[in-house]
């Protein structure tokens, strides 16, 4: 049995009367890449956002390295300070990049190091430069987001997350807002990260990425986690008719 | 000509008071408006409701009435202020709900995702306000802030009624003493025009500076 970086047990989440997550169970192995796939509206983003408690789950447990996130005990919210403490070690990358437009690439990356890790401006600037060099943007450090392509913006967003030295990285469709020719550069950075042994949870519609990079693929539908297994068993020999039908639609849409 | 030498110094002094009242009224009003907007954004629901009532009441009554209540009604509850402080306090209160609403709209214009990105790396809510929410909402709120501060320049003339010695006060004195209404009011108009022009120029320059990096490349 491998160590789990994230243990999700019996998680339920409601938006008013609508149940977005239904008794979700999932283990995310440490040092591995787990991809979350499934039709639109199936709850992938909701589940991902529950992992760093950007979205509050209503019942069940989510443990990061054994520690319950969001609650001290069932039904009792944890303090803001404790939550921030846990979030420091969880990086997140959003579909829409969400860079801060009034700061340069370097300032975007340095901000968390200064405000959260308490580094000095110079130290943070140096670490930010390193992180940006790692995602191939050493020459764009002083550009503001408005002067960067979508792919470059997303790489800055990844640098912003990894500069905090997280133990876990969450990606919510990191390439979905990109022009097709810019998808590759972002996936390349993610593959490098995976090769270094970063624990990653990736919501994606890139079946190629899931097939080649993921160690595990989890399939969701209508708020349920239908199956989680090796990429091969989910993507090539799916047993569940819901997965089969999802993949059929996917292949139809992507063939011409 | 001797009219100018006779009343010139008083008019200049009056203009000085006008600029002072406007500047302090704007700064304090903006500060109070910002505090109200933040409390409505982060505070408990009952406080939000109380502040909503405050906003409605202040916006729903004429400045003149507010000033009268403050200056002549204040002493009844032990609030005895000189004309100038009363005028400044009045301007601050009068402007605050408008500024609060401008800031509120500014907050809403900041994409939620940019705040979530800050929360996701563990920034405190105070740091998020200072480093992300305020700078970004200022960008969209600035034109409205400048616009309202220009409107406030002209509200300062009402302070003459409680004998703050600002420009309108001096101009009224000059006209009643000399019966030169046209000249007196022309001077008034010129001074205000100059002030408003200066404010909007400064505003535009400031706006250009803070939006420099925000223009989307297309
Ligand atoms: N804030 C909200 N309020 C109400 N319903 C919501 C909210 N956020 C999400 N939902 C609903 O919850 C369900 C799951 O949404 P979620 O965003 O997790 O789906 P998803 O699998 O990420 O879809 P996509 O692939 O389109 O991003 C959807 O039916 C959505 O309409
Ligand atoms: Mg989603």
TrEMBL record, chain A:
Cross-referenced Gene3D superfamilies: P-loop containing nucleotide triphosphate hydrolases
Spell out the subcellular localization from the entry.
Cell membrane
- What positions does the domain ABC transporter occupy? 6-247
Q: How does it sit in the membrane?
A: Peripheral membrane protein
Which superkingdom heads the taxonomic lineage of this protein's source? Bacteria
Record keywords, A-Z: Amino-acid transport, ATP-binding, Cell membrane, Membrane, Nucleotide-binding, Transport
What CDD domains does its record include? ABC_HisP_GlnQ (cd03262)
Q: Does the keyword Membrane apply?
A: yes
Q: Which molecular function term from Gene Ontology is one that the record holds?
A: ATP binding
- Can you tell me which family this protein belongs to? Belongs to the ABC transporter superfamily.
The protein's name in its UniProt record: Amino acid ABC transporter ATP-binding protein
Automatic annotation (TrEMBL), chain B:
Give the stretches traversing the membrane: 15-39, 46-71, 83-100, 132-152, 178-196
UniProt keyword annotations, A-Z: Amino-acid transport, Cell membrane, Membrane, Transmembrane, Transmembrane helix, Transport
* Any single Pfam family the record assigns to this protein: BPD_transp_1
Q: Where in the cell is it found?
A: Cell inner membrane; Cell membrane
Bilayer topology? Multi-pass membrane protein
Q: Is Transmembrane found in the keyword set?
A: yes
Q: Which residues does UniProt call coiled coil?
A: none
Q: Which residues form the ABC transmembrane type-1 domain?
A: 15-200
Q: Where is the signal peptide?
A: none
Q: Which NCBIfam families match?
A: HEQRo_perm_3TM
Which family, according to the similarity comment? Answer: Belongs to the binding-protein-dependent transport system permease family. HisMQ subfamily.
Protein's name according to its UniProt entry: Amino acid ABC transporter permease
* Protein's organism: Paracoccus benzoatiresistens
The opening ranks of the lineage are: Bacteria, Pseudomonadati, Pseudomonadota, Alphaproteobacteria, Rhodobacterales
